[in-house]
Amino acid sequence: MTSRPLPLDATLVLADIGGTNTRVALARGGRVARDTIRRYANATSVDLPAILRDYLGALGSPACAGACIAVAGPVQDGVAEMTNLAWRITREDVAGATGARTVAILNDLQAQGHALDRLSGESLRTIIAGPPAQRDGARLVIGVGTGFNAAPVHRTGGALLVAAAESGHATLPLRTEEDLRLARHVEKAHGFAGVEDVLSGRGLERLYSFHAAGTDLSAAEIMERIGKPGEGAANATCRHFVTLLGRVASDLALDHLPFGGIYLVGGVARAFAPHLADQGFADAFRDKGRFSDFMGEFAVHVVEDDYAALEGCADHIGRRIAG
Fold first, then answer.
1. Is the pLDDT of residue 220 over 70?
2. CATH number of the domain that 85 lies in?
3. What is the domain extent for residue 41?
4. Are strands 159-162 and 148-156 parallel, antiparallel or unpaired?
Protein backbone atom coordinates (compact mmCIF):
# COMPACT_ATOMS: atom_id res chain seq x y z
CA MET A 1 0.00 0.00 0.00
CA THR A 2 1.37 3.44 -0.94
CA SER A 3 1.38 6.22 1.65
CA ARG A 4 -0.58 9.37 0.96
CA PRO A 5 1.70 12.38 0.30
CA LEU A 6 2.29 14.66 3.24
CA PRO A 7 0.44 18.00 2.90
CA LEU A 8 2.73 20.67 1.48
CA ASP A 9 1.98 22.99 4.37
CA ALA A 10 2.77 20.41 7.08
CA THR A 11 5.68 21.46 9.29
CA LEU A 12 7.86 18.88 10.99
CA VAL A 13 10.58 19.48 13.57
CA LEU A 14 13.60 17.19 13.46
CA ALA A 15 16.66 16.68 15.63
CA ASP A 16 19.80 14.59 15.23
CA ILE A 17 21.60 14.18 18.58
CA GLY A 18 25.18 13.04 18.45
CA GLY A 19 27.61 12.68 21.30
CA THR A 20 28.89 16.24 20.82
CA ASN A 21 26.28 18.31 18.96
CA THR A 22 22.55 18.38 18.29
CA ARG A 23 21.32 19.46 14.86
CA VAL A 24 17.75 20.74 14.63
CA ALA A 25 15.75 21.56 11.51
CA LEU A 26 12.26 22.03 10.11
CA ALA A 27 10.83 20.04 7.23
CA ARG A 28 8.03 21.28 5.02
CA GLY A 29 6.07 18.93 2.80
CA GLY A 30 8.33 16.13 4.02
CA ARG A 31 11.61 17.70 2.85
CA VAL A 32 14.25 19.21 5.14
CA ALA A 33 14.48 22.99 4.81
CA ARG A 34 18.28 23.21 4.88
CA ASP A 35 18.24 26.92 5.67
CA THR A 36 16.54 26.15 9.00
CA ILE A 37 19.29 23.83 10.29
CA ARG A 38 20.86 24.96 13.55
CA ARG A 39 23.58 23.28 15.62
CA TYR A 40 23.70 23.23 19.44
CA ALA A 41 26.62 22.12 21.60
CA ASN A 42 25.43 19.39 23.97
CA ALA A 43 27.94 20.36 26.66
CA THR A 44 26.33 23.79 27.06
CA SER A 45 22.71 22.64 26.74
CA VAL A 46 20.48 21.59 29.64
CA ASP A 47 18.58 18.91 27.74
CA LEU A 48 16.77 18.27 24.45
CA PRO A 49 13.42 19.92 25.39
CA ALA A 50 15.31 23.12 26.22
CA ILE A 51 17.00 23.03 22.81
CA LEU A 52 13.70 22.42 21.01
CA ARG A 53 11.91 25.24 22.85
CA ASP A 54 14.76 27.65 22.12
CA TYR A 55 14.90 26.61 18.47
CA LEU A 56 11.16 26.86 17.79
CA GLY A 57 10.84 30.08 19.78
CA ALA A 58 13.51 31.71 17.61
CA LEU A 59 11.46 30.76 14.53
CA GLY A 60 8.21 32.18 15.86
CA SER A 61 6.89 28.97 17.46
CA PRO A 62 5.49 27.31 14.30
CA ALA A 63 2.78 24.67 14.71
CA CYS A 64 4.39 21.28 14.16
CA ALA A 65 2.45 18.34 12.77
CA GLY A 66 5.13 15.91 13.88
CA ALA A 67 8.53 15.58 15.49
CA CYS A 68 11.23 12.98 14.94
CA ILE A 69 14.38 12.67 17.01
CA ALA A 70 17.47 10.61 16.12
CA VAL A 71 19.66 9.74 19.08
CA ALA A 72 23.10 8.18 19.47
CA GLY A 73 21.97 5.46 21.86
CA PRO A 74 19.43 2.67 22.40
CA VAL A 75 15.70 3.37 22.15
CA GLN A 76 13.18 1.17 23.93
CA ASP A 77 9.43 1.76 24.26
CA GLY A 78 9.77 5.34 23.04
CA VAL A 79 12.51 6.21 25.53
CA ALA A 80 16.10 6.97 24.52
CA GLU A 81 19.08 6.57 26.80
CA MET A 82 22.07 8.36 25.31
CA THR A 83 25.23 6.25 25.14
CA ASN A 84 27.75 9.11 25.32
CA LEU A 85 25.58 11.77 26.98
CA ALA A 86 23.63 11.82 30.26
CA TRP A 87 20.25 12.61 28.66
CA ARG A 88 17.04 10.60 28.84
CA ILE A 89 14.56 11.46 26.08
CA THR A 90 10.88 10.50 25.97
CA ARG A 91 8.11 11.04 23.43
CA GLU A 92 6.12 12.89 26.08
CA ASP A 93 8.95 15.38 26.68
CA VAL A 94 9.37 15.98 22.94
CA ALA A 95 5.62 16.45 22.48
CA GLY A 96 5.55 18.91 25.38
CA ALA A 97 8.39 20.97 23.94
CA THR A 98 7.13 21.04 20.35
CA GLY A 99 3.35 20.68 20.51
CA ALA A 100 3.56 17.86 17.96
CA ARG A 101 0.85 15.21 18.13
CA THR A 102 2.92 12.58 16.30
CA VAL A 103 6.37 11.92 17.75
CA ALA A 104 8.98 9.31 16.88
CA ILE A 105 12.34 8.61 18.50
CA LEU A 106 14.87 6.62 16.49
CA ASN A 107 18.38 5.41 16.99
CA ASP A 108 20.62 7.65 14.85
CA LEU A 109 21.63 4.75 12.59
CA GLN A 110 17.96 3.97 12.00
CA ALA A 111 17.53 7.57 10.82
CA GLN A 112 20.51 7.17 8.48
CA GLY A 113 18.91 4.03 7.09
CA HIS A 114 15.65 5.86 6.39
CA ALA A 115 17.68 8.49 4.50
CA LEU A 116 19.27 6.12 1.97
CA ASP A 117 16.55 6.47 -0.68
CA ARG A 118 16.95 10.27 -0.51
CA LEU A 119 20.70 10.37 -1.15
CA SER A 120 21.93 11.77 -4.44
CA GLY A 121 24.96 10.38 -6.27
CA GLU A 122 26.90 13.49 -5.30
CA SER A 123 26.42 12.54 -1.65
CA LEU A 124 28.33 9.26 -2.02
CA ARG A 125 32.04 8.50 -2.31
CA THR A 126 32.53 4.93 -3.54
CA ILE A 127 35.33 3.09 -1.74
CA ILE A 128 34.72 -0.39 -3.14
CA ALA A 129 32.71 -0.79 -6.32
CA GLY A 130 30.50 -3.87 -6.42
CA PRO A 131 28.02 -5.43 -8.81
CA PRO A 132 24.79 -3.52 -9.50
CA ALA A 133 22.91 -3.18 -6.23
CA GLN A 134 19.87 -5.39 -5.81
CA ARG A 135 16.92 -3.04 -5.42
CA ASP A 136 15.28 -5.19 -2.78
CA GLY A 137 18.55 -6.38 -1.28
CA ALA A 138 19.44 -5.57 2.30
CA ARG A 139 21.63 -2.53 2.91
CA LEU A 140 23.86 -1.78 5.85
CA VAL A 141 24.61 1.56 7.48
CA ILE A 142 27.78 1.76 9.61
CA GLY A 143 28.24 4.87 11.73
CA VAL A 144 31.71 6.03 12.77
CA GLY A 145 31.64 9.28 14.73
CA THR A 146 31.67 10.11 18.43
CA GLY A 147 30.63 6.46 18.81
CA PHE A 148 30.22 3.43 16.53
CA ASN A 149 27.13 1.52 15.48
CA ALA A 150 25.55 -0.30 12.55
CA ALA A 151 22.01 -0.93 11.33
CA PRO A 152 20.64 -3.20 8.58
CA VAL A 153 18.06 -1.70 6.21
CA HIS A 154 15.38 -3.91 4.64
CA ARG A 155 12.72 -2.97 2.11
CA THR A 156 9.36 -4.55 2.94
CA GLY A 157 6.81 -3.69 0.30
CA GLY A 158 6.53 0.09 0.22
CA ALA A 159 8.17 0.61 3.60
CA LEU A 160 11.65 0.44 5.10
CA LEU A 161 12.49 -1.65 8.13
CA VAL A 162 15.64 -0.39 9.86
CA ALA A 163 16.59 -2.59 12.79
CA ALA A 164 18.20 -1.02 15.84
CA ALA A 165 21.49 -2.36 17.22
CA GLU A 166 24.41 -1.48 19.48
CA SER A 167 27.21 -2.93 17.39
CA GLY A 168 29.84 -0.59 18.77
CA HIS A 169 29.92 -2.54 22.02
CA ALA A 170 30.79 -5.86 20.41
CA THR A 171 34.28 -7.23 21.02
CA LEU A 172 37.08 -5.71 18.95
CA PRO A 173 38.31 -8.32 16.41
CA LEU A 174 41.92 -9.36 17.03
CA ARG A 175 44.14 -10.94 14.37
CA THR A 176 47.71 -10.08 15.32
CA GLU A 177 49.95 -9.71 18.35
CA GLU A 178 49.77 -5.94 17.81
CA ASP A 179 45.98 -6.10 17.99
CA LEU A 180 46.20 -7.99 21.28
CA ARG A 181 48.53 -5.36 22.73
CA LEU A 182 46.11 -2.69 21.55
CA ALA A 183 43.21 -4.46 23.29
CA ARG A 184 45.19 -4.57 26.53
CA HIS A 185 45.88 -0.84 26.13
CA VAL A 186 42.30 0.31 25.49
CA GLU A 187 40.62 -2.00 28.00
CA LYS A 188 42.26 -0.02 30.80
CA ALA A 189 39.44 2.52 30.42
CA HIS A 190 36.64 0.21 31.60
CA GLY A 191 37.86 -3.37 31.48
CA PHE A 192 36.73 -4.30 27.97
CA ALA A 193 38.06 -3.70 24.45
CA GLY A 194 35.02 -2.98 22.30
CA VAL A 195 34.79 -1.85 18.68
CA GLU A 196 33.83 1.70 19.71
CA ASP A 197 36.89 1.90 21.96
CA VAL A 198 39.01 2.16 18.78
CA LEU A 199 36.69 2.94 15.84
CA SER A 200 35.30 6.31 16.95
CA GLY A 201 36.59 9.80 17.64
CA ARG A 202 37.70 8.97 21.16
CA GLY A 203 38.85 5.57 19.99
CA LEU A 204 41.15 7.23 17.47
CA GLU A 205 42.74 9.10 20.35
CA ARG A 206 43.32 5.84 22.24
CA LEU A 207 44.76 4.22 19.12
CA TYR A 208 47.18 7.12 18.67
CA SER A 209 48.22 6.92 22.31
CA PHE A 210 49.01 3.23 21.73
CA HIS A 211 51.19 3.94 18.69
CA ALA A 212 52.79 7.06 20.22
CA ALA A 213 53.80 5.32 23.47
CA GLY A 214 51.39 7.22 25.67
CA THR A 215 51.43 10.62 23.97
CA ASP A 216 47.94 12.10 23.79
CA LEU A 217 46.47 14.23 21.01
CA SER A 218 42.90 15.18 20.10
CA ALA A 219 41.24 13.44 17.16
CA ALA A 220 41.43 16.68 15.15
CA GLU A 221 45.17 17.00 15.82
CA ILE A 222 45.75 13.40 14.80
CA MET A 223 43.87 13.85 11.51
CA GLU A 224 45.92 16.97 10.81
CA ARG A 225 49.16 14.96 11.12
CA ILE A 226 48.11 11.97 9.02
CA GLY A 227 49.93 11.81 5.68
CA LYS A 228 52.71 14.19 6.65
CA PRO A 229 56.38 13.14 6.51
CA GLY A 230 57.94 12.38 9.88
CA GLU A 231 54.59 11.68 11.55
CA GLY A 232 55.22 7.98 12.14
CA ALA A 233 52.75 7.55 15.00
CA ALA A 234 49.93 9.35 13.18
CA ASN A 235 50.48 7.39 9.97
CA ALA A 236 50.68 4.07 11.82
CA THR A 237 47.47 5.03 13.61
CA CYS A 238 45.76 5.74 10.29
CA ARG A 239 46.80 2.42 8.79
CA HIS A 240 45.70 0.47 11.87
CA PHE A 241 42.37 2.31 12.09
CA VAL A 242 41.59 1.66 8.43
CA THR A 243 42.54 -2.01 8.74
CA LEU A 244 40.33 -2.54 11.78
CA LEU A 245 37.45 -0.69 10.12
CA GLY A 246 37.76 -2.97 7.08
CA ARG A 247 37.69 -6.06 9.28
CA VAL A 248 34.69 -4.92 11.33
CA ALA A 249 32.77 -3.85 8.20
CA SER A 250 33.38 -7.24 6.59
CA ASP A 251 32.23 -9.09 9.72
CA LEU A 252 29.04 -7.02 9.71
CA ALA A 253 28.60 -7.70 5.98
CA LEU A 254 28.67 -11.44 6.61
CA ASP A 255 26.16 -10.99 9.43
CA HIS A 256 23.64 -9.09 7.27
CA LEU A 257 24.49 -9.84 3.59
CA PRO A 258 23.91 -6.27 2.35
CA PHE A 259 23.70 -6.91 -1.40
CA GLY A 260 22.21 -3.42 -1.70
CA GLY A 261 25.45 -1.86 -0.46
CA ILE A 262 27.26 -0.73 2.68
CA TYR A 263 27.15 2.94 3.67
CA LEU A 264 29.70 4.46 6.07
CA VAL A 265 28.33 7.55 7.84
CA GLY A 266 29.49 9.94 10.55
CA GLY A 267 32.14 12.60 10.99
CA VAL A 268 35.03 10.21 11.54
CA ALA A 269 34.05 8.11 8.50
CA ARG A 270 34.01 11.26 6.37
CA ALA A 271 37.38 12.38 7.74
CA PHE A 272 38.95 9.02 6.86
CA ALA A 273 37.31 8.77 3.43
CA PRO A 274 40.39 10.13 1.56
CA HIS A 275 42.60 7.52 3.27
CA LEU A 276 40.50 4.37 2.92
CA ALA A 277 41.62 3.44 -0.59
CA ASP A 278 45.38 3.80 -0.11
CA GLN A 279 45.60 2.56 3.49
CA GLY A 280 44.29 -0.94 2.89
CA PHE A 281 40.54 -0.83 3.60
CA ALA A 282 39.66 -3.05 0.63
CA ASP A 283 42.38 -5.59 1.48
CA ALA A 284 41.20 -5.82 5.09
CA PHE A 285 37.55 -6.03 3.99
CA ARG A 286 38.28 -8.94 1.63
CA ASP A 287 40.61 -10.79 4.00
CA LYS A 288 38.19 -13.63 4.67
CA GLY A 289 40.05 -16.73 3.51
CA ARG A 290 37.83 -18.90 1.33
CA PHE A 291 35.14 -16.20 1.48
CA SER A 292 37.45 -13.50 0.08
CA ASP A 293 35.93 -13.65 -3.40
CA PHE A 294 32.43 -13.54 -1.94
CA MET A 295 33.22 -10.17 -0.31
CA GLY A 296 33.28 -8.70 -3.81
CA GLU A 297 29.48 -8.87 -3.76
CA PHE A 298 29.31 -5.83 -1.47
CA ALA A 299 29.88 -2.25 -2.58
CA VAL A 300 31.07 0.19 0.09
CA HIS A 301 30.34 3.94 0.04
CA VAL A 302 30.95 6.88 2.35
CA VAL A 303 27.93 9.17 2.82
CA GLU A 304 29.26 12.72 2.63
CA ASP A 305 25.97 14.48 3.45
CA ASP A 306 26.32 15.62 7.06
CA TYR A 307 22.55 16.09 7.34
CA ALA A 308 21.41 12.70 6.05
CA ALA A 309 20.01 11.70 9.47
CA LEU A 310 17.68 14.71 9.40
CA GLU A 311 16.42 13.61 5.97
CA GLY A 312 15.83 10.14 7.41
CA CYS A 313 13.85 11.62 10.29
CA ALA A 314 11.74 13.63 7.85
CA ASP A 315 11.07 10.55 5.74
CA HIS A 316 10.10 8.40 8.73
CA ILE A 317 7.78 10.83 10.51
CA GLY A 318 6.28 12.00 7.23
CA ARG A 319 5.28 8.43 6.39
CA ARG A 320 3.87 7.96 9.88
CA ILE A 321 1.65 11.05 9.57
CA ALA A 322 0.59 10.35 5.99
CA GLY A 323 -0.45 6.82 6.92
1. yes
2. 3.30.420.40
3. 11-115+307-322
4. antiparallel
